[in-house]
UniProtKB/TrEMBL annotation, chain A:
It comes from Mesobacillus foraminis. It holds the Pfam family CCG. Belongs to the LutA/YkgE family. One of its GO terms (molecular function) is oxidoreductase activity. Residues 3-83, 132-215 form the Cysteine-rich domain. This is Lactate utilization protein A.
UniProtKB/TrEMBL annotation, chain B:
PROSITE patterns: 4FE4S_FER_1. InterPro entries: 4Fe4S_Fe-S-bd (IPR017896), 4Fe4S_Fe_S_CS (IPR017900), FTHF_cligase-like_sf (IPR024185), Helical_ferredxn (IPR009051), LUD_dom (IPR003741), LutB (IPR022825), LutB/LldF (IPR004452), LutB_C (IPR024569). Belongs to the LutB/YkgF family. The lineage of its organism: Bacteria, Bacillati, Bacillota, Bacilli, Bacillales. Gene3D superfamilies: Alpha-helical ferredoxin (1.10.1060.10), NagB/RpiA/CoA transferase-like (3.40.50.10420). This is Lactate utilization protein B. GO terms for biological process: lactate metabolic process. The keyword Metal-binding applies.
Amino acid sequence: MKVSLFATCLVDMFQSDVGKATVELLERLGCEIDFPESQVCCGQPAYNSGYVKESKEAMKKMIDAFASAEYVVSPSGSCAYMFHEYPHIFKGDPVWETKAKRLAEKTYELTQFIVEVLKVEDVGARFEGRATYHTSCHMTRLLGVNKAPMTLLSNVKGLEFTQLPGKEQCCGFGGTFSVKMAQISEQMVDEKVQHVEETQADYLIGADAGCLMNIGGRIDRKGKPIRVLHIAEVLNSR
Amino acid sequence: MAMKIGVEEFKERVGKGINDSFMRGAVAGAQDSMGTRRLSAAEELGNWEDWRSHGEEIRKHVLENLDYYLEQLSDNVAKRGGHVFFASTAEEANDYIRGVVASKNAKKVVKAKSMVTEEIHLNSCLELAGCEVIETDLGEYILQIDDHDPPSHIVVPALHKNKEQIRDVFTDKLGYQKTSKPEELAGHARETLRQDFLTADIGITGCNFAVAETGSFSLVTNEGNADLVTSLPKTQITVMGMERLVPTFEEMEVLVSLLTRSAVGQKLTSYITVLTGPREELDVDGPEEFHLVIVDNGRSKILGTEFQSVLQCIRCAACINVCPVYRHVGGHSYGSIYSGPIGAVLSPLLGGYEDYKELPYASTLCGACTEVCPVKIPLHELLHKHRQEIVEKEGKAPISEKLAMKAFGLGAASPALYKIGSKLAPAAMNPFTNGDKISNGPGPLKAWTEIREFPAPNKERFRDWFNNREKGGNQS
């Protein structure tokens, strides 16, 4: 199966290990990976801040970049969701609405793709450790992916899993919210870190680079002995 | 504009909220318990999503035919001998009510809880005219005796106070000498209020749902105070937001079911009071004179716009009870009597961006509000629409942000520029980089790194790794 990877700008620039793990994992599952070179940012930071006009230019580039893809897979629920928003954003546009629909229809978040398209529930991973999982808001509420990551994690050998208290609560990232409303964001991420600590987990796993950068950055600053990992890295462990 | 509370700037209000540990404890506890109760009440109904769709359909239908139903309602109220006044503004509503009060030479008014009368600041208007106004909902009563502390929640107005603080207010203002046990506090309020019910000249209520077909008004309470407000005083005034109506009792039943479950996780509240016009010949109680005041105050301007769905709101506060921002800053931070996600959408529409331009940004767009709304208002999408309006039409965004977004538009939209930019990032960030992280970032990163680490850009971007690998380079 041919998969075009929508790596996301955060992974491309800051978390290349997540990108590598995603590629290796999908290849092991029999996929042939392609990385369209002209991909940029999905436009979400500008779009969510109200700069719709500016963000549309980036969106058009993304639609073109993935035009010939069979499947588009992203290791980020929020960014994958953004592709699903495109048809709504370009509604009424004679050229771009149809193209946006086509892109949305073939775009999947990584775990969703593995479970729903590849029909795999056990990727054969082994990961020793006590871990908890952060359910990202956009991935669960807006993209509607709830079960796939849990299904895959439950089949990882050696993984001791603990449920995160208040898991449905936002971590306080929210893109530019984290800097625009810094004082509120701080309270939110602190409560999240406190909940992670309550689980006594050694690892916090997530499927969204933005949330992980926020929670991980706070954990690191506070010097807490908790490692933050993307789900692709866990599923790629042997 | 009238719904504004306080004069402090947004940041000051938020700072105050965050530092109020009593309030935060009370809010977090209430959110957790109400959230659990709401979920079980919704699940118990079985097909909650169908109920939500039905609720949405009813509200949409009413808004699309609002003129028809308002006319039907007015006709039916008039037929039963009631007086109907349509107020375009808060001032018109207040003037009319003050006129009724003056014509009755009324000295004392008892009120049931009503957000629309908070919105138009009715109490202070009547007090200025020399009339004593007494709130009879326990939460509102507590706030009123505490020097008119504004409500911080649309269903539980005194949510920001714990029982010890309430005891202190009672002790200071009423000479109360008992404990902070809720039963004793409520008992004291009941005793005091009973005299007020019996001696009031006028009763004023809000309205949960007006029933157009019969000219009836329903009030949903747990204390039964609305029963007394509508049956003891000789004159009764009901004040309603112009969108708060349903065609018949059948639709009211659906919406009340959604309301009580969403608001407090109850199948039904202790009292649903329904009032239809003034007392009739064989009635043993009820007002001799009935006035209906329908308040527009900016609502009709929302009709027909992209924000119309906000008028579907049935004021259940489910969105407030799940909002992670409200959880940490509390209701007063919003600077409006309408707080939380619904307040952040509604306040700028009714009160203008000048006072409320920050509110649409006081959200991570996490979508928790949209998910729980019993009438399916896409709240987080409306918050986003506000941001777009602020940027594109109002031009109220900061210049630095505009420039940054312009740069984003150019950079992110050009694969070549994006590639160069991301390639140069490690070198550009080098002065700020310490190992694999940035602890003291420049520009917009400053606010981030004040409390968290930011990852240093990878020296080898993912795309470089991928391309090398394709060329048969590194195989990891």
